[in-house]
Design a protein that fits this description.
mainly beta, 10-stranded antiparallel barrel, 10 strands
Length: 161
């Protein structure tokens, strides 16, 4: 089954030309659209942000990517006050540490086309959180998350002013 799928993909993606003629040359690297890197997609200055859904709150994002957050997580039922600081950033990944009423290590991957994924390891519930962010416009993020240990889904939106 897998070999049939592979041959189908090869045949569908093969360059087409007239019989007996060489196929037109294509520069694959220039034809490909790469996603915008993290450092270009982040706002240059910080600002106030609010969010809601499974978590309600707000905070202030600084120009270096760090943020102060205050929120209420309905699944845990305790307030959270935290400071998040990026510790390593490349074009398409970012690692950061969060400390305050929760301590966690977060790793993000920018997948392109306004989509990013995030893996959050925490010392407080939820211990592991998998999240997928979609940025339909520049200042809005829609997030869906999953806690595999408690088998619980979460969602929230955020708006940077």
């Amino acid at each position: 089954m897998l070999s049939h799928l592979a041959w189908t993909i090869v045949l569908l993606t093969a360059p087409m030309g007239q019989p007996g003629q060489a196929s037109p040359e294509s520069n694959f690297a220039s034809d490909r659209q790469l996603p915008e890197p993290f450092y270009e997609s982040q706002p240059e200055t910080g600002g106030l942000f609010i969010f809601g859904g499974s978590r309600w709150g707000g905070g202030w994002k600084f120009g270096d990517g760090s943020a102060i957050t205050a929120c209420w997580d309905r699944s845990v039922r305790v307030p959270e006050f935290s400071y998040r600081k990026p510790i390593h950033e490349t074009e398409y990944t970012r690692s950061s540490v969060t400390f305050g009423t929760r301590i966690s290590l977060v790793h993000e991957w920018y997948l392109g086309w306004g989509v990013a994924s995030r893996l959050d390891f925490s010392c407080s519930p939820p211990l592991v959180q998998l999240e997928l962010d979609w940025f339909p416009v520049e200042t809005v993020a829609l997030t869906i998350g999953f806690d595999p240990l408690h088998r619980r889904w979460s969602w929230f939106w955020s708006f940077i002013m």
